[in-house]
Amino acid sequence: MKRFRCIVKGRVQGVWYRKFVADAATSAGFRGYIRNLPDGSVVAVVDTPQEALEEFKTILKKGSPMSQVESVECEEIPLDVPFQEFGIIR
Description:
By secondary structure, the protein is α+β, with helices and mostly antiparallel strands. The chain is about 25% helix and about 40% strand. It has a 5-stranded mixed β-sheet with strand order 4-1-3-2-5, with helices on one face. The model has no long low-confidence stretch (mean pLDDT about 95).
């Protein structure tokens, strides 16, 4: 298990993007969180095996019907206490 932080840029705030990602990630069995950033982008942090990262990125790239994702950049970060669910941080 690894932890990844993904920054999503585009029209991803005010368009139900976080709710869409949280629901899809939960359905797919991912654990982590998503939250808005002050610059208009979104950060998603997920605990997942390396081989499942592409599936998570597909969820991020799809987004909600009103969103428009321009880029998704993920990096591995240290894994400390594992997440128990996938949630939205306000």
